[in-house]
Amino acid sequence: MDEEKQAKEPKPKKSKKTLLIVVAAVLLSGGGGWVSLFSPWQVVDGSALLGMKKPPEAEKKPEKEPQKFIYKMDPFIVNLGDAERMRYLKLKLEIESAETKSNEEYEKRLPQLRDSVFTILTGKSSREIMDSAGKAKLRNEIAARLNQLLTTFQVRTVYFSEFVIQ
């Protein structure tokens, strides 16, 4: 009779819990393996996987380019060349040269450099310089004009650190 009672009583649900734990462990370990193999943040060199040694050129770190010198100008506040309405531009710019230290020519020619920038800015309308393409064109125009005036060094890049049209 004891055998009949045991046959009628449901078996404990340990097998379902065990199965869930095993499935979870397999999924987690498989997911971790997938991330370690296919992660976009990890760079894997194929030669390292094959046990090959890298050539000496590949082991060298690229040398950093020395930081170039940046010249700061006082802010410009100019009337733009808009015919329909009076508009003002406040512009603060910095000039990056190809040199790693300050150059005396910049200080000596600063009044000429500022006058050239004023001349360029007052000839522009707000529509010409409002969008990013207009600003890029203005940067290039300023750099080209300054490079015409300077002899001992060249302007590499013109940065706008403040640009307000009102």
Topology readout:
Blueprint: H1 2-8, H2 14-38, H3 46-49, H4 56-59, E1 70-72, E2 76-79, E3 88-97, H5 104-122, H6 126-129, H7 132-149, E4 155-165
Antiparallel strand pairs: 1-3, 2-3, 3-4
Helix pairs in contact: 5-7
Summarize the structure.
The protein has helices at residues 2-8, 14-38, 46-49, 56-59, 104-122, 126-129, 132-149; strands at residues 70-72, 76-79, 88-97, 155-165. It has 166 residues and is of the alpha+beta class. Strands 1, 2, 3 and 4 form a four-stranded antiparallel beta sheet that branches.
What does this 3D model show about the protein?
This protein is an alpha+beta fold and 166 residues long. It contains seven helices and four strands; from the N terminus they run H-H-H-H-E-E-E-H-H-H-E. The protein has two domains: 13-59; 70-165, Tetrahydropterin Synthase, Chain A (2-Layer Sandwich). Helix content is 49%, strand content 17%. Strands 1, 2, 3 and 4 form a four-stranded antiparallel sheet that branches. Helix 5 crosses helix 7.
Could you list some keywords that capture this structure?
17% strand, single chain, 7 helices, 4 strands, 166 residues, four-stranded antiparallel β-sheet, alpha+beta, Tetrahydropterin Synthase, Chain A
